[in-house]
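Justification of resources, computational component.

The compute hours requested in this renewal are based largely on the per-chain cost of generating structure records like the one below. Each record pairs the submitted sequence with a full structure-token output. That output is archived, and it is also reused by downstream analysis tasks.
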Amino acid sequence: MPLASLPMATRDEMQRLLHGPCDSSFLSALHKALAADCGPDAGKGDNGGRQLLHRLRLLGETLPTADRLLDDPAQVAAIHAWAAVADPSLCLAALVHHLLCLGSMAQLADGQGEHLGRRMESLRAGRAKGVYLITEAGQANSHLATRTHAEFDPAAGEFVLHTPDLQAAKFGSAGTLDVPQTAVVLARLVTDGTDRGVFAFVVDLTGDDGLLTGVEVSSPLGLGALPLDYVLVRFHHVRVPYADWLADGAGIGDDGTFHDPAGSSERRLQRTLRVGQGLWATMPAVAAATARQAAVQAFNYARQRRTQGRLAPGVPLLAYRTQQRAVLGALADAFALTCAADGARTVWAESLAAPAPRAGNEAEAMGFTPWAAVNRPLAAYKAAAVRLAAKVTAVCQSRCGFSGYLDVNGLAAYHGFHHAFDAAGGDSQLIFYDIGRSLAEEGGQPPGETPSAPPLSPHWWPATVRRHQDSLTQRLSEQLRTTDPNAPFDTWNPLLEDAGLLGEVHADMLVAENVPRTLDGIRDHDLAQALRPLAALHGVMAARRWSGSLLAHGTLQPADIRGLSVAADELCDAVAPHLPLLTDAFAHPDDVVCAPLAAPDYDTALRATLTWTRGGTE
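The structure output for this chain reads:
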């Protein structure tokens, strides 16, 4: 049953599930903005910078004014999710532009005076491109040891931004030299010779005539998995006005006295980096949207493609159990990511409403990296979402044969985006290490009983993975108690792999627990019935992925693992009657996707993209 044939209330509930509480008029405007220049080649060519600004302007017109940019997390997430489906490179540019650059100004500025307000509105309106410069390419974990510095000049009332050497050069998407670019640069503030911690500064990199004085960029750095204008950036004594310091409550008095409500350099870094929460909260929605589209395209291919294999010549690929488990499993994982996107938006909305951490307030201590200390749940959501989306899109690619790797079908771009984001936006593996460390130090709970619900229930996997997390936590905590707390490197060096495993299991548990919670909130009985076997199938597929660890730690027994294939087949059969509804609902509009794999007749659609050349004469 296609979506259009269902009652309006059912369609509205499905829309809320997929896109959050965004009204139809907003989604229509977003659709129109992205359909205006469809396809992965949009924005490329001789005037790429101007075209990118045009595309950012179209997206910006669907957002509130710059000073209210973050008022509606659901709209922010939907804009970037749809942009990722249309073109992952556009999505990345927009994430940096809106959430990191504009988001820093919105969250870290002390009020929004006329000067900053004009800058912010220029970015929202697409008159300038936003850049975020944090990573220094010459050393690992540079976020914890930023060397670019901004020294306060009391005579001029300005800061002098300087890159001390080539190792401190910033890596970022700042190579679009033919358009105005405004960057938020993270640098170590120095006053009266004293290090005051890492702050954000607003710095113009280019104007209409190219690079501005004191700004130096390298030749382009190619990154095929996620094409954008990457370069290294250096600053040579660039003057930054006091008004362009995103002070976040700190200040320098007329007598040179410095004050900062954060209270310490470590807390200052956490406060400065809290803008990353918007990125982390948005990534599950991006992952969900691209995974849904990839799964729909893989299903579309599998139902059309006839195989001439000896077992059954002429049957569609989807008749094979192996193909069903892979393609319908991808659809199930995409649904789980959709549930996780709602959970991440909720956590972000709560964090926006909460006061920033100040001196004396309770906050998570900085661990191996700053990410989990800024917001553990959102960092976990980001890491789990991009890793699962990379797996889903890779499976969909491989199940579509050579068609899955053609640029025109978009699956390669989806996979490249999420695979690259495993390291970008806060390295996922480092996040897992830190979460595992924190859980082990906290001690956790003893493992509960083996779940009584069968694998065919949506509640089986959340209970199973929670028990697995508790078991891993208890084991790592016991190992930790036998070590010397005064030798942290010697303690954690041999335990990092176990800590990373625990952190990843915890992040997957967050995703898993959102699934039955989402199902319980669905009011339409028929819609819930269609989604229930899909939810359970995600759990079975996740357990298959984790089977080695589940067996090794005794969370499941060999007979349990052997039964997962049978359960997967039963759930595929239960999902099958609902596939017309699910694939219709999960697909994005054709004029946003622009992929032949999304067409009712794939072969005809692919041929329509080709021209032919014949040799010889008749």
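The chain has 22 helices and 13 strands. The radius of gyration is 25 Å.
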